[in-house]
Design brief:
Blueprint lengths: L1 H15 L7 E9 L20 E2 L4 E8 L5 E7 L6 H15 L6 E5 L22 H27 L2 E11 L3 E3 L8 H7 L9 E8 L5 E8 L10 E2 L2 H13 L4 E6 L5 E3 L5 H20 L9 E11 L6 H7 L5 H17 L5 E11 L3 E6 L2 E2 L1 H10 L5 E4 L8 E2 L2 H6 L1 H6 L1 H4 L9 H13 L1
Parallel strand pairs: 2-10, 4-5, 9-11, 15-17, 16-18
Antiparallel strand pairs: 1-3, 1-6, 3-4, 6-8, 7-12, 8-9, 13-14, 14-15
Length: 450
């Protein structure tokens, strides 16, 4: 009888030590991706020469989460203006073959700094297709180096995988301003008077990774605002870079990873001076620190990941004659786009009426809905999804997996302007989005969450 009791106790101990009770595991790593040589910078069409110096390092960082069932998710953050579909495909294929991640387990997030290098064909008419062969060669060479570094930093993050406590919270930071509704020169007085116009999203989502003894190992945080404080000729991570550096200084031994929210129509104002980038970075880091130093609910060791590409419809396409006429435009970016579209028509015989738009959704701990949207998404998407989902427990990243164009809401598309359609020429799409774009994306998000 005693042997039976011992066996039962041993079986109970086995059940209590099963994977369902083991909790989270996590690992994080960082690597510099600052180019070794100076070539073209991404984000502004007004630049007329390659980079001339370096003010800060640029980084690729990887965070791996593994739940109690062994299900994994990988977030890679990049101090870059964006990546295109082709480069994202190379990255995910490499991560699948080298590290065993499936497509839905991978989320690639960019900070949208306008003081980093051109990567591949992202913003093709603005950069790659408007540059000479020497610059194109340097851009292609950098993309290959970057691909290798992303694979390497992911391997390093996997190597540090260890038991962890995962917690989440949300703070507030207010330097983002709706740039469609507020003239930059009027912002200081308007902010003081409390009369800023238009929607903004000032939430600061924070996910912390702590070891079992409570030591902070990694911080994942986001903010919805363009990284356009700076417009100089030196490599610089802009305010997201300074925020990450400040957090790592304030919490030694941690790795800070930034993702850009739905800031397509949001600017840091005032701007254009280096001290302001440092100031906003310090301010954002302080708000992240407030969350880390307060009570943060611990998340259950459960992770659900999903990914889908929808056929996002475009408005009626231009005719071949219209495209050929644009190839003779006095606008060099219009010419670059037209020549690209002509090549596509010659290769395929036609242009696509839809675009494969990427949407990822992670549910972390049955508490956080983390939504990853491609493109330069305007703030209306984040505000709507928060209303329709879980408030500040709904995190919406833009600039994820593929930055192919601005993504206007129906309101912004109807109003027009730069975010509503004027920016399309710089990305190379043949026409604007159809007016159904907002509903198509939001419906797909809800479907993936369910």
């Amino acid at each position: 009888m005693q042997r039976i009791l011992i066996a039962l106790v041993a079986f109970a101990l086995f059940l209590n030590s099963s994977p369902a009770e083991e909790g989270w595991k996590a690992g994080a790593a960082a690597v510099t991706i600052t180019p070794d040589e100076f070539f073209w910078m991404a984000g502004y069409g007004s630049r007329s020469a390659p980079a001339e110096g370096k003010q800060t390092e640029l980084f690729a960082k990887a965070l791996v989460l593994e739940d109690s069932r062994g299900k994994r998710g990988l977030i890679v953050t990049l101090d870059l203006v964006g990546i295109d579909r082709e480069f994202a495909g190379k990255v995910t294929a490499q991560l699948q073959s080298t590290h065993g991640f499936s497509r839905e387990q991978i989320s690639l997030c960019t900070s949208h700094t306008h003081s980093g290098p051109v990567v591949g064909r992202n913003l093709g008419p603005l950069h790659y297709w408007s540059l000479d062969a020497e610059q194109q060669k340097k851009i292609d060479a950098y993309a290959e180096v970057l691909l290798g570094k992303i694979g390497a930093v992911t391997g390093e993050a996997l190597a540090t995988l260890a038991p962890a406590r995962i917690q989440a919270g949300s703070g507030k930071c207010t330097f983002a301003v709706n740039r469609r509704e507020n003239k930059e020169t009027n912002v200081p007085a308007s902010r003081t008077a409390g009369t800023l116009e238009g929607p903004s999203d000032h939430d600061v989502p924070v996910l912390s990774v702590r070891s079992q003894d409570g030591a902070l190992r990694a911080v994942l945080f986001g903010y919805a605002c363009h990284a356009t404080v700076l417009s100089g000729m030196e490599w610089n991570g802009d305010y997201p870079g300074y925020a990450q550096t400040e957090i790592e200084k304030n919490f030694p031994g941690s790795i800070a990873l930034f993702w850009a929210g739905c800031g397509g129509d949001q600017n840091p104002v005032p701007r254009r001076e280096l001290p302001l980038a440092e100031k906003y970075g310090a301010e954002l880091a302080a708000r992240v620190g407030d969350v880390l130093n307060a009570h943060m609910p611990e998340l259950k060791p459960e992770l659900e990941v999903s990914y889908r590409e929808i056929e996002a419809p475009l408005a009626p396409l231009p005719t071949a004659e219209e495209i050929k006429a644009n190839a003779s435009s006095t606008n060099r970016f219009e010419v670059a786009r037209a020549k690209f579209l002509i090549r596509k028509m010659e290769e395929k015989g036609t242009l696509d009426q839809v675009y494969p738009y990427p949407i990822g959704v992670w549910n972390i701990g049955d508490s956080i809905d983390f939504i990853f949207l491609g493109g330069e998404v305007v703030v209306d998407y984040a505000l709507r999804l928060k209303r329709e989902r879980k408030g500040t427990s709904t995190w919406v990243a833009g600039y994820s997996n593929d930055v192919m164009a601005y993504i206007p809401s129906l309101r912004v598309a109807t109003e027009g302007g730069y975010e509503g359609g004027g920016s399309h020429v710089y990305y190379g799409l043949p026409s604007l989005w159809a007016e159904s774009i907002e509903e198509d994306i939001v419906t797909a998000v809800h479907g993936l969450v369910k």
